[in-house]
Design brief:
The protein has 10 helices and no strands. With 182 residues, it is mostly helical.
């Protein structure tokens, strides 16, 4: 990764909150342990370890957290009955079908070339309806990528919660490895 891309990624508030901080949680104990173990070494060695610990290790931890969060995403969605955004567009199981129809109407105005299934069509073929819902969601995501125009979307994004489950997975694996070696 180029230095410019790295700086852009770590300076982005969403990436810091959703990926870097959970990665920092994972790497902090390792970094502290490393500093404690090398304090008896020459001063230059401690400086090198400190620099690595404050830069690359946290970023590497963020990448581990992101990968673990992404891999957990499908299992979470399956246990929930689909992505939350897809569920918000389904008539089936909705506590308020008027609100669902309103969302459909808004999406139909935004994307007139993408037909939204009505309640009967969804009941007849739920998988096909979900494909339309997922296509509408992807189109909406693409339309809201401008961080300056849609800053609340990035500020309220759920990715931080998804990525914050990943440190538990990483720390659990590290604890299991430690238990096996000890």
């Amino acid at each position: 990764m180029a230095a410019g891309a790295f700086l852009e990624e770590v300076s982005d508030p969403y990436n810091r909150r959703a990926r870097l901080f959970p990665g920092f949680i994972v790497t902090l104990p390792i970094s502290v342990l490393t500093v404690v173990l090398v304090t008896t070494k020459p001063a230059w060695w401690s400086t090198v370890v400190l620099l690595l610990g404050t830069s690359g290790v946290s970023y590497f931890g963020a990448q581990l957290v992101r990968s673990a969060g992404r891999s957990k995403q499908e299992a979470l969605w399956a246990s929930w009955g689909g992505a939350l955004t897809t569920q918000l567009l389904r008539f089936h199981g909705a506590p308020n079908t008027v609100a669902v129809q309103r969302r459909h109407d808004q999406l139909s105005r935004l994307f007139p070339d993408l037909p939204m299934p009505d309640q009967a069509a969804e009941s007849a073929d739920p998988q096909a309806a979900d494909q339309y819902y997922e296509a509408a969601i992807r189109a909406l995501i693409e339309r809201t990528r401008d961080k300056t125009r849609f800053d609340r979307v990035f500020d309220e994004n759920h990715g931080g919660r998804r990525y914050s489950t990943a440190p538990r997975v990483c720390l659990y694996r590290a604890a299991r490895m430690g238990a096996r070696s000890g």
